[in-house]
Amino acid sequence: MSVRMNCSCLIIFSLVLEVFSHLEGCHVGWTHFQDKCYFFSHTTASWFDAGEACTQFHSKLAEPRIVTESNFLKSQSQFLNVNMWIGISDIIKEDRWEFSSTQEVVKNTEFGPGEPNACTAENCVALWKDFHGMWVDLACTERLNFICEADAVSDFGALIG
Length: 161
Description:
Blueprint: H1 2-24, E1 31-33, E2 36-40, H2 47-56, E3 60-61, H3 67-80, E4 84-89, E5 98-99, E6 124-127, E7 135-138, E8 145-151
Parallel strand pairs: 4-8
Antiparallel strand pairs: 1-2, 2-8, 3-8, 4-5, 4-6, 6-7
C-alpha cells in the first residue's frame, strides 16, 4: 500500500509542478522572471549554434535591455558558475554592439575590465563568470553555455517551448 501511496504522491507532485509552470507562462525547465521566460543551457555551443538552438525553442539568445533583467541574468550565470552567450555582437560593424534579433544598438554596455579587447577577432558577447557576469567579447566559434529568452505567456493556451 505504501508503494502505491508514494507513486501517487509523485504523480500528484509532477502534475502540480506542471500546472505552476503553465501558470507562470513558461514550460518546465524554463525560469520565469518579470514578463519573460529564460532557458539556461547545460550544454555548450558556438554563438551561432546557440542562437539556432534558441530558435528551435521559439526563442532567441537573451538580450538584456534593462538593469533588472541584466542583473537577473548575471546572478543566474554566477549561480550556475559558467560563462554564457547572450544575443549581442558587433559582427555587422566593428565596435557597434547590437542586439542580434533587431540590430538595435545597445545603449548601456556592461563590459568587464579591459573588455572589449580583441577587435575583429572577437565579435560575440558572453557573461563571464570571472567578471561576476559582466560582459566579454569572444570569438563566436568558442563553445559556451547560453541563455535563451522568450516572452512569458499569460494566456493558458499558447506556451513557448
